[in-house]
Amino acid sequence: MNTTQVNPGIGADTAAFPRSAPSNPDAPHVRRAEIRVNAGKDRGPLARIWESIGYDEFNWTYTRTGRDLLGTFGELTTHGFHVRPHYVFCSGTGFAIPHWGNGNVYHEDASGRAAYDFTLVDRAYDAIVEAGHHVLVELAFTPRDLLPDQAAELEVVPSPTVYSGYEAGAWAYPPRDYGRWGDLVAAHALHCLERYGAEEVRTWLWELWNEPDIFYWRGTPEEFYELYSVTARAVRGVIPDAKVGGPAVTGAGVEFLRGFLRHTREREDPIDFVSFHTKGSAFTPWRVYGPTGGPAPEKQNPSATKMLFEVRRMLRVIAEFEEYRDLPAIVDECDAGVPAHYSVYDNANFQFQNTEYFPVFQVKLMKKLLDLNDREDVQVEHATSWSFYFEGERYFEGTRAFLTAGGIEKPLLNAYRALARLGERRLDAASDVAYDVADLDDARGRSMPEEIDVLAGGTPSGQVGVLVWRHTDDQYQRDDVEAEAVVHVVGLTGGEYRLSHWRIDAAHSNAHTVWTDLGSPQLPTDEDLVAIRARQGLEELEPPRAVHATGGALDLTVSLPLPAVSLLVLEPVT
């Protein structure tokens, strides 16, 4: 296998969709949309599936920057996000680098007696809980003192850039003693119960491992299934009402998931949720060795249809098991590209992670997942963005993160600010030029074309929030002409409203654009930083103004560049 062509986090199945979507400069544009929002048609609670994040670098959870970012997300929710960090059981010094961290919990003395050290766990989980969030406990991976004998067979070429065989992947071997693993899991659960209390930990999700269908698991599927039985029963033995689940497979792990569910059914194992992942692209080659900042050898893009196809396929696998159809699906890595720590210096196609493309993609994706929920028996409860931040980056490195150097917010964070303002109830809304998830059967590997679509929410006080976007999966597509979206709002109960209008596009809510306009400085002046930070939050496109509804209806017209998303909020004036 040529390892330079392998991306972690994505399965080997390319039969349905290619690993990334090509660009098509001749693709047609959408220039007009008719949108109808019925404020009087309540479709039930607006499932806040986006309220979840995760990341590899366990030890960055409790840095000052990590704590501040968790606090920012705490301002965007009333219930808290579920936060899923990797590597809690890995051994190490507490030092994190991109795609590596460690909780350093398990140790054995010279006589083989086990001991537990929760120092680093406390720092990480304290930071999550103190910010108002809840832990999605990923119980992984194998501590160094629990490695089996065959872990010594892992071939590692000594190098100053490699610590040892353990960090290079020995942590992925099954534990040598499942009884000791169960004791570790039980001790971890008990410590969390005693430290955070039953009321808090019953909101947590307890998940075994990560992507065991690929190289994150160096055992057999059957060995993993048995480890789940041990793990789930260990957690429940300490916290009887704990929510346990798995197996967190990749989007290609269909047969692994099916085998896992057969096992849990046959063994009557506790299971409260089913988890899996999806990624929208894996660029090839993953790293380009050439002049710094050079172009991509081929223009490649994420594919929202690939992600939706994989999610739908997994939902239908779960639905094959009648007793599991009511379990929630947790898509606890749900990302446009993979892996998180690759940047524009690895492959220029990762530039989308800096720009306005990404937040609009994320809003679009969340709405389409809600549409899948409307059609499928099994429901997505969380769609986790595997994104946090990276220490030691250059400005706008292009990694999948909410912050760049200096703690400056990237446009992606504004997608979550916009979604947070929609309200608690989903309102009926539709666009005449939206991509319909029913068309996935006819996608034939193609990415999602340009569309204008809408997601609307309301509050008991009569406030109406409307997200309207224009987007295409092709990050290289641009249009000099803005599209016109006419938003017909009906079902309003008042006459006078205050309209606020926020916008994410190249010119708004976009610190990256300011930085590039300043010449992309890697040593920005104090004045540069003030200008950049001034444009990093969610910005209003226009000042708030009064609008009048006649007969419970009013029309609004929005001009949308490509890509862009507008948030319209109507507040009744009493």
Figure out the total of helices: 11
Strand content: 15-25%
- Unreliable stretches (pLDDT < 50, length at least 5) are 1-6
Structural class: alpha/beta
Radius of gyration: 24 Å
Biggest sheet: strands, sense, closure? 9 strands, mixed
What gap, in angstroms, lies between the N and C termini?
67 Å
Give the strand order of the largest sheet, numbering strands 1, 2, ... along the chain: 20-19-22-17-16-15-2-18-21
Shape: globular
Number of strand elements? 22
Q: Round the mean pLDDT to the nearest integer and report it.
A: 96
Family: Belongs to the glycosyl hydrolase 39 family.
GO molecular function, one term: hydrolase activity
Region (Disordered): 1-29
Pfam families: Glyco_hydro_39 (PF01229)
